[in-house]
Structure formats: structure tokens, C-alpha cells
## 1
Amino acid sequence: MRAVMAQSLRTDVSVNRFHPAALVGVPLLALFLQAFVPLKLHFVSRFDLPLLATIFFAVSRRNQVQGLMTGAAIGLLQDSLTGLPIGLYGLSKTVVGYVASSLSVKIDSENPGSRFLITFGFFMLHQLVYFTVARGMVRLDLQWQWQHELLGAVLNALVAVPIFMMLDRLKQRA
Amino acid sequence: MENVINRHRTVTILVMVLFAQVIGLAVQVRRPVEGEPVRLIRVWATTAISPIEKGVIGLGNSLHRVWSGYVDLRGARRENEGLRQQIEQLQLQQLRQREDAAQARRLQALLGFKEQFISQTLPAQVIGTSGSEQSRLLYLDRGASDGVKPDMPVVSPDGLVGKVARADRGNCTVLLINDQLSGVGAMMEKSRLQGIVSGAANGTLILQYIMSDEKVEPGDMVVASGGDRVFPKGMPIGRVKSVSRGASVFYSIELQPAAELSRLEEVLIITKLEQRAPEAITAGSARAADILANRLPTVPPPAPTDENGNPLPPSRSNPPIKPNASNGNKPPAAGGTTRPATSAGGNPATAGTATPTPKPKKSPAATAASGEQDLSGPTGAAEKPPETPLDPKDAKTKKDTSDKQEKKEVPPKPDGPQGAR
């Protein structure tokens, strides 16, 4: 673990660019799959594919403003598919987008090990912000269950590694 | 000031974006206003995603039809035979239940009850979900252009699913009954205790406001009470899964939903509910017991004989007795109905599932005393029902008369099936 972290911490980072179609298409595809696949495979609702898209674009582009704006846009679109007030996912993903793009300057996001850890950490951060806002502002009756959230974080981190490898093909070196 | 903003440009943007969203949330969290317009972003998102979902679902259905209609026909003959047997059993069961329903309608007509009838439904395909564990919504491929409106109930053959939360042009959103924003007026089917069914944060279905001194057992059915004026009364919601006493005076009751809420593919939207007084079905309606008796093998009644035991020729004053005609030995029950034939003490609903076999005939008095009604012979089960007494006085007179007759001919037995009815 320490070796992975040590290898991950570096300062010479590369900035990636994406085709505008990829920037729009990948989040929309993630939203579509998130809404459609649970009809056939119910366990897929445990994954947060829009969050994975947010993290991927934030750490790849390494631009804080772009990261938070991408997170806000994806989050608000995800909110619009739920029956809950718009802004819950928006706030959470804005924070994740900003923090992910800030951290990406200091860590290597190409390594599968670091990608696992990044996704794990940002999933927990996302859930923490979501629960805080949902309970504190919207008064939703949500229960924080450590076991449930940790399992969700591990599952999402495991799925993130191969998904990020596929999305790497869309990168255009700046 | 300008320098500070420039120096912390990203943080400033972050704070502004977060602040805008918090303000937006605060506006939405305030008490909802009736007829509030739908957020435009919701319409955009649905409009962007639902055509793709419809296309994928349509393609999947076409492939499935080709597979199931032409390729995968193994075992169809055996399945067909099994279904035929099932249909026969269900038809018998239906006959018995029709009798009970007719009786219920007559009684409701007498009491002036008004019922809700599902008069129009619209089948719809489920094309998507909210994709969130915190919000339980379904997207259907029918919308305002098909006549769908908000608050219309959505059901499946197994039970209640939810209600239409929003109807766009070509699709609609359904709030499932296990969403935490949902609420359904409910009652226990047996005890008629009333409560409210809503969803918990983790998606379980909870029945609330049942006092903890009432009797509730796992397995009890919970149905819609109709008190919310949205869901039709009597529609199954679920069965009691577990009961626990909380700190308050109410039970904490978890339900197992009657409909498979996570595996729905097609549903029915109830587009029209009529409220009308039930019509009593009397004249011209065949009784279940009569139809059953006609179907079953019967022993022909003995021909009338004279004093010396010689058979009498048929005449006007002494017509030949039809196998299923009333023999007049047993008067009808007070309500003008006779319980459909069952095995002794059996449940008429379940009795229909067994194949009836002809039984040795008993005398009418013995049949009445034992509580049995012979399906195969001309007994009380084959009697023609009297017309529904619409005038209460008339009903009382008929009841008195029939009671007197029963006292004369049938030995008194307080706990017989007729009395229990």
C-alpha cells in the first residue's frame, strides 16, 4: 500500500484533453446506464456511474474550475432523474469534482492502485456530503450505515479501475 | 478586494456554485405549492434519456418476441396442457366466487354503499428508474399524450405499484409505494385496522399508525383503504413481514410488497375510476351452485309411486322431477342466498381447486344437519334464489317466513355453516 502511495505521489503531471463529444457523451451514457440497467440488474443501483465519470474527468483534466463545473453539471442532471429536490447530487459532485482536480495535481492518477484508492475516498466524501445536505437541509430520513457505505465504496472502486482504463482511450494529450 | 478574488479565483467560483445550489435547494424545500410548474431541467433530462431507453427496450422486446415465438418453443405442448387444467380449476373457483360477489353486491345495494370501479386502464412499459438508492421512481413509456395525468394509480397484476408523479408528453414518472415521499391509505384485510403505508430510506415498506394493543401477525394481507382518494380500495399492497413494538404506542410493521417493485416490466395505469352504487344481480343470473350441479354427474331421482309402490304416469299435477330442480325440502337462507357447496366445513374458495367427486346421496334433513350441500343432487344447493328484497319490510317478512319453515323442518343447529355465514 505504502509503495503504491509513494509511487503515486509525484509532481510532474500531464494534463489531458478530451474531445467535446466525449465530454458530453460519457456523462450522458453514465446517466443512461445508471437509470436503465437497474431495471434488468437491480444490484447496479449500488454503483454510482455518474460519480465515476466526475472523478475521471476531474483527475484527468487537472483543472479545478473545469472539475467543479463538470461535477455540478453531472450532479444536477442526476438530480433531475430522481424525485428528490434538485441540488443534492449537484452539491456532492461539485465538491468531489473540485477536490479530485485539486488532488490530481499531486498524485498519479494513471496507476490502478491509486485509482482504486482515489475512487474509494471520493465515494465516501460524496456520500458524506450527500447525507449531510439531505439530513440537514432537506430533512430526509436517511440512516448512515458504515457497512453499507464501505461496501459501496469498495464496489465502486473495483469497477472504476477497468472503466477508467477504457476511458483512457478517449484522452488527447495537451 | 479585486485582488483577493483574482488570487482565490477557483475557490470563489466553487463557493459561488455551491451557494447557488444551496439557494436552489432552499427554494425547493419550502412547502410545495399546488400546481407548481415542473423544473425545466427535469423535463430536459427526461427528454434526453427516455427516447434512448424506449429504443433499447423496444429492440429488446423485438428480439425476445422472435426468440420466444419461433425459436424457444420447447415444452409448449406440456405447458399448454398444464394451463388447460389450470383454467378448468380456475373456472370452477370463479363460479363459486361469483356467487359470493353477487351476494356482496346485493347487500351493498341494500345499504346504499358506493364502490370504486376500475373502468379504464392503460398498459405501459417500464423504461427506466431513477438510478438512485434514495429515490424510488420508475419511468413509463406513456405520457400526457396518452391521457396520463398526475396522481393516477399504477398497479401490476400482483398489487399496488405507485402513482404517477409527473406526466410529460411521451412518458411519465411513477413514485413507487416504497419511496420515502410516498404514502398510501391502507388497512389490514382481516381486522380492517387502518394505517398508512410509506417507504423507508432503505426501500422497505412500512405500515404505520397501528396501535400496539391490536393483533397483527406476520402473513396478514394489507390492502388499500381508498381513504386517500388516489388508490382503489381493496388493491393488495403487501403482506406483514415482521411486527415489532417500538417505543411509541404504535407497532413498527414491515411489509413484503405484493408487487415485485424491483422487477417490474409492464404495469397498468388506472386512467379512470368510477364511483357508483353496485347493482344487485338477481333475475336471470345463474347461480354458481346450479351451474356446478349441472356439470357434475347426478343420480336420477326415483320416479313417483303410488301407495303400492307402482310408478305413476307423468301428469300436469305430478310433473317429472328434473334432476337439478328444487325439491322444496330446504328453505333458502334469510339473505336469499345459499352458500355454494363445499366439503364439510371447507372454504368455498379453496374447495374449488379440488376436483369434485360424486358423493352418496343423503336425505335433505341429514344434509342440512351435517352442514354439507351435495353438489351432485337436487338438494338445497340447487335451489333458485329468491329475488333481492329491496324493501326492508319485505325482506323482514321473507326472513321470518323462511325462519319459521326452517324451524319446522330442520333440527336446530346453531353452529352450522349456514348460521356461521
## 2
Amino acid sequence: MKASKEDEFLATIDRHKKIIYKVVNSYCRNKEDRNDLEQEIIIQLWNSFDKYNPEYKYSTWMYRIALNVAISFYRIEKKWSAKNDFYNEELIFSVSDDNEYDPELDLNIKRLHGFIHDLNELNKALMLLYLEDKSYDEMAEILGITKTNVATKISRLKLRLKQEFQKNTN
Amino acid sequence: MEAIELKKILEAYDNKLDKTLRINLSSMKELKLEKSQNNMKKMLNYRIFEVVTFGFLAMILGGYIANNWGQTHLVISGIIVHIFTLVALIGSIGQVVLLQQIDFSKPIVEIRKKIERVNSHGLLFVKLVFLSAPFWWSYAIVGLDLILGVDLYIHLEPDFVIRYLTVNFLLIVPLVWVLIKLSYKNLHRKWVRVTIGLFTSSKTLKALEALHDIEEFEK
């Protein structure tokens, strides 16, 4: 029974690995922090696995947990878990070499990540959800603010992003 | 960068991740999922310890008041100290309740507020210490009587007691005003920030700044 629950959990994580990967990359710059945060998010997801409310989409539930953990982790600068000896050293997620290397795409993605990194923790979450093409309703649900507030903030962020890319292009 | 260009970049990035992102299943299986001992659990243990300590103190003070019933100065002093202990006890119980309500699957803003309220708990104690300033004499009277069995009051000159109580009484209104102002809503005032920074830890100040940011985010 327990093994099948773990297998189900592993399969779920595998299906939604991009969510964890993107959240971790948005909140942590160095490899060691990323490793700790990946593991902390997975542990929290496991702890909440039984409490999953099917009323929400699985990705909404996962985003809430991953972002809540990432923001907590980010604020206390990994002090809460980095020293725990049960963490292993190997990264859970890895990106293999891409044969179709596109320098322009890579540069744009780096700029985008740079922009996201410079935002405060809550705007970072909002930007991430916007980039994931979430609807305003879903963003409001994940963040716990009104849909109007989401729309206003997104338009401000888009303007800042546009200015940032223009500055870099010039 | 127009929205359409941004979407194109992200689509390409997503496609790239679909092809290249791998999960290391052996690392996943080695994770001891049940053993997470995060900061929340440690904090909950601290707060439970506070609740037990203040609960114990409240019981002792209750007994002290009952045992000295009839000696006005000891009863009044005991009641004052008891009230401050009860406020601290209620504050700590509130913290335990808040900590138990923290569920990472709830909306982000709601959880951030709860966590930062827990982190800014130190301000309550600073406020209690300052608010009890006009009543510090009661701590001395109760403390000396409880620990050493010495009744300080009978050694004091009546004139001194009257002057002391008058000055302390006059202090109450300005103190209450200052304490109301010591809030994250007033962090833009230099004296508020300096005072909080001086008497609390940097963690408390950061938590108050975060509460301010959350409020701004909600606007």
C-alpha cells in the first residue's frame, strides 16, 4: 500500500517536474541552494499529498506548495534545511545537453531569468504564473488576491519587462 | 518585448525543457520523505514552551493573589503582574494557533501573513515590557516577596510612593501612544524603524517589513 502511494507520488512529480524546476530556478541562484529547495518542496508535497483537494487543479495545488516553500526558503536563506543530514548531494532534476542549441533563445531566457530574479518574492511568484500562461482566475486563486489586483500587477510587470528588454537590446 | 514575443520565448523554453529535463528517480527514492524537520516545527516547539511557561507563571501568580488576599498592596501588585502574564500567555497561544494553521497548500498571501506574524512575535514582548514600565514597581514587590519573602512596600516612604505613582500614572498615555505607533504600518517613520530595530532582532524587523510588503501587494 505504502509502496504504491510512493510510486503514485513519484509519477505525479515526474509529470509535473517542470513546475518544481521553474520555481526552484526562479528563487535560487546557486546549485547548492537549488538542491536544498528541490528537496524541501518535494518533502512538503509528500507531506500534503494525502490532503490534496481535487476541487483544485493538481498544478494549482502544486504551485501553491512549491511557491510557499520557495518564498519561506528564500526569506530565511536556506537556514532551515541546509544542515539536515538526510539530504543527499545529488540533484533531483537535471537538464541534459541539448543538441539543438539556440544562442538567441538562451540569451533571451537568461535575460528573462535575470528579470525574474530581481523582483521581490511575491512579484516573482506572480511573474512565474503569468509566464506559465495561467488564467487571471487561477493566479488569483494561487496567490490569494483579487483578479483585478492580478490584472493591474501583471500590466505593471509587463511594462517593466518590456523596458528591461529594450534596455538590454540597446 | 511584446507579449507575443515573450510567449514565443517561453514556448521554445518549454519545448527545450520537455526534451532535456530529467528526474533522477534514484535520488528521489533516497529522500527520507517522512523526516522533514523544518523551521516551522522548531518554532512550534518554542511557542509551546512559552505557553507552558506563561501558564505556569499565571498559576503561581493566581495562587499568590489568593494567599495574600487582604493585603491590598500585594494583591494589587499581584493582579498587575498577572494581567501582563495573561496577555503574554494569550499572545503565545495565538502563535501556536497560527503555526498550526500554516498549510502550504493554502493561498500564498494568506500563508505569508501567518508566517510573518509568527516571525514578528518579538514585538509583542517589547511592547509588553514597555507597557509595563509604569508598573515595574509591582514586579519588584511580587518578585522580592515570592523569592525572598521580603515585603518591599513597608520599607518605602509614603511620600516617595505617592511621587512615584504620580509620575508613572502620567507616563501611561504617552507610552500607549508610542506603542500603538510601533507597527509595520509605520515603518516609514524613522523613529519607529530605529526603535523596533533597537529592541528586537533583525528577524522581527524583516518580518514587519514583509508584512508591510504583503499589504502593499494586496492593494
